Amino acid sequence: QMAGFFGGGANAMRDLEERRLEARLTQDMFDRCIGICWRKCVTRFHDGEVQETEAACAEQCVSKYFGVFGKVQEALLRQQEAQQQMMLQMQKEQQQQNQET
Fold first, then answer.
1. Mind giving me the DSSP string for 2-34?
2. How distant is the alpha carbon of residue 95 from its chain centre?
3. CA angle 34-30-54, nearest 5°?
4. pLDDT tens across 22-57, in order?
5. 97 DSSP assignment
6. The pLDDT value given to residue 1
7. Are 51 and 34 in contact (CB under 8 A)?
8. pLDDT tens digit string along 2-13?
9. 25 with 33: CB under 8 angstroms?
10. Staple 41 to which of 11, 18, 58, 73, CB 3.0 to 4.6 Å?
């Protein structure tokens, strides 16, 4: 299995790069969420502990952030699938036209 990974050439490198990009995007999303929810919810810095209201706010904020992110991701996926279907249809029509001529 490892030999296939290390000896996979271009495909293995592309897979690795895709995983790295996905990890960076996930980290970026997480960092943005933390930043947004921190600024919104944590208001008392002089206390040594997070207040109960701040914790509840942060929990709701994170939940909402990831909920919205999930919906956006679903919409983008549907759009991408529609574009792929359109491209396949265009290719099919082009092949039919080429066969007719």
1. HHHHHT-THHHHHHHHHHHHHHHHHHHHHHHHH
2. 35
3. 25
4. 899 889 989 999 999 999 998 877 777 888 999 999
5. H
6. 47
7. no
8. 444 555 577 888
9. no
10. 58
